Amino acid sequence: RGDTSVSFHAFPSNINKKRQWEIVLKMGKKTPKNAVVCSFHFQDEDFIISQTKHSPRLRRLKVNVIPSLNLPKRKLDKVIDTPTKEKIRKRSERAQKRSKFVGDLFGASNELDQTQEQTSSDFEELANELIDEARVQISNEEHILTFDKCIQVDPLYRPPGFKSTIMDLIRNDTDILAFTGIPTLLKFKKIVEVGELIVLRLNYNTQFVLDVHHRILLTLIKLKLNISYKCLCVLFSISKSTCANYFYNTIDLLYLILKPLIIWPSKNSIEKNIPRCFINFMSTRVIVDGTETAIVTPKCLACRIRTYSFYKGRHTIKFMVGIAPDGLITFVSDVFGGKASDKHIFETGGILNKCEIGDSVMADKGFLIDESCTNAGVKLIRPPFLRKNKQLSLNDGVANTEIAKAREMMDFNI
């Protein structure tokens, strides 16, 4: 207290300024009301000396003064660099190490440089002479355009008249399966060979830009992936209208190629290959089901009415597929509009004419064909209806499960 050079100063009354003092002085706890800071934490320029009667040399702090001297330090206080600054620092350290290493290397080699100076000059003269001779030889040869260690080839270069198609990229079974759905290249080639024979017999007079091979590939890609004609015309290097015309034309050709592959097997053949899930349905001759495919909205009003499917909520075409118990597709009906019912397609498709008396037809609940099958002497195997009952009976539940297991293969094939 006897030392007049030390003075004590209270914290500012302003909250923001007080908070700045607390941060600088590292005040972890709440600051007491009577806390003061000694003058050792301030610079001489921070004070104003005032003259009064009672204290002739009273020191007061200026308004916006913050403690800046003898500030407390903690052992855990450490300046953490940002990732960018850390990279810059490490990079500079590596550069210093490299420069030091290079300096030592050059310092050790100064003596060798003096002894090898004469030898290097002789090598330079010899190298210059050899380069001059090489340049003279290159200039005399007419067919050598450049003198380079490597030959640069443009991978996009094509000779005049060359047209590449997507078939140039299909090289294995996996590629042909992804684009067309045909499992192997060999089977695709067989389809093309049959198509070429049919075209020869029909004696087409129309000239096509693409051969049968590429026209069939184009059509199968459209059916499998349903990509636009604009994309197809780029892949096959033809116009958009030509691409659409080839598709419509090749659809008829594919019908002639694949139609003979759908055969109606004999009853003995089916019984020999029937799977275990049909052990309770040995008389089953065919499993039928309908399928729909979306189409573009027709321009004709009558066609719009016939093709609109209330079940799908859009314009579709509909046909019925028949599959033998062993998984072979044995029947494909004509194409109907989406408005046609499964019963109408079944009765007009002619599949009952192929069945014999005593055969069984398996269908789902959508085929209300009890009367048609009874008149043809064919048994109908169909999941039981719940009707007004709350649940199926025990026998109906067992039958429903067995029929569902047998029909699982039908849904997989479609």
Provide structural commentary.
- With 414 residues, the chain is α+β, with helices and mostly antiparallel strands.
- The chain has helices spanning 15-24, 83-140, 173-180, 185-202, 212-225, 229-236, 240-258, 267-272, 301-307, 342-349, 370-375, 394-413; strands at residues 8-10, 36-38, 47-50, 58-61, 284-294, 308-309, 314-323, 329-332, 336-337, 360-362, 379-381.
- The strands form three sheets. Strands 5, 6, 7, 8, 9, 10 and 11 form a seven-stranded mixed β-sheet that branches.
- The longest helix is centred in the N-terminal third of the chain and has 58 residues, at 83-140.
- It is elongated.
Q: Averaging pLDDT over every residue, what do you get?
A: 81
User: Distance between the terminal alpha carbons, to the nearest Å?
Assistant: 103 Å
**Main pleated sheet:** 7 strands, mixed
What level of helicity do the residues show?
Answer: 40-55%
Q: What is the number of E strands? A: 11
The number of helical elements comes to: 12
Give the quaternary arrangement of the chains.
Answer: single chain
Q: Unreliable runs, pLDDT <50, ≥5 residues? A: 141-151
Structural category = alpha+beta
Shape descriptor = elongated
* Helix-strand topology string: EHEEEHHHHHHHEHEEEEHEHEH
Whole-number radius of gyration? 47 Å
Strand content: 5-15%
Note the main attributes of this structure.
elongated, two-stranded antiparallel ribbon, 414 residues, 44% helix
Short characterization:
This is THAP-type domain-containing protein. This protein has 414 residues and is of the alpha+beta class. The protein is 44% helix and 12% strand.
